[in-house]
Write a structure and sequence with these properties.
Helices cover 67% and strands 0% of the residues. It is elongated.
Length: 238
């Protein structure tokens, strides 16, 4: 088939394969501007095809056959209504994967659910009732995502996300607790202690859990001090 716009389609497909937004780099404009905008698509073979369009033969390979009703669309391909309906299902799948110990897979599910809601939220006026309602649905998913990242030892991502939650919801105990654990992991001792103190102020019933985290932090600090003394003793004795 003689398909003039195939290079743009191919670029989108390659973006999808790389886990990127399929519309990356594209924007609405007139035909002349579109040609100028896409003078280079980032792939030499597609650039050549765009300059010299020609009939193409497409070979389609069947990778797998799925049972009816088992196919799940990627979030980018869903309508707004489909995104909203998919979120509880994706959330449930993420929880099940987490219970099975598949933390990386669970975090990917939570990320997809967050992406669906963020996409919908971008279409609302910040601070409006609909925007706030979507944000309140995003928050527990983001906390689940942070729990996965804690286990994957990606602490700075946890710090960023929990801080963004606390900038909006100052009484979110789970965000303080997870941020406190992340601070402790990267040796931000004062910040960790402050977050754990906030947890106790908001929910005193969590004292046993917080005490355990503080004891663990103190033990790690003692070990670090002992290691530092040995290290520096060797330096000054030379």
């Amino acid at each position: 088939q003689h398909v003039v716009l195939y290079p743009l389609v191919s670029k989108s497909l390659r973006n999808i394969a790389a886990g990127k937004d399929p519309l990356e780099g594209q924007r609405h404009c007139c035909s002349i501007a579109q040609l100028h905008e896409h003078y280079s698509l980032g792939y030499p073979d597609l650039d050549e095809l765009q300059k010299n369009p020609q009939p193409l033969i497409f070979d389609i390979e069947v990778l797998k056959v799925e049972a009816p009703g088992s196919y799940q669309q990627d979030p980018w391909a869903m309508t707004d209504e489909e995104k909203l309906q998919a979120v509880p299902l994706i959330h449930k799948e993420g929880n099940e994967l987490y219970r099975q110990g598949k933390v990386q897979e669970a975090s990917a599910k939570y990320y997809d659910a967050i992406a669906c809601l963020k996409n919908l939220q971008m279409k609302e006026q910040p601070g409006s009732p609909d925007w706030i309602e979507l944000d309140q649905k995003i928050t527990p998913l983001l906390l689940n995502y942070c729990q996965c990242k804690l286990q994957c030892e990606e602490y700075y991502e946890v710090l960023d996300h929990c801080s963004s939650i606390l900038n909006k919801y100052e009484d979110n105990v789970k965000a303080y607790f997870k941020r406190g654990k992340a601070h402790a992991a990267v040796w931000n001792v004062a910040e960790a202690q402050a977050d754990f103190a906030k947890v106790l102020a908001l929910d005193p019933s969590l004292r046993p859990v917080v005490s355990k985290e503080l004891r663990s932090l103190e033990a790690r600090l003692r070990e670090k001090d002992a290691e530092d003394k040995i290290r520096f003793k060797g330096i000054f004795s030379q």
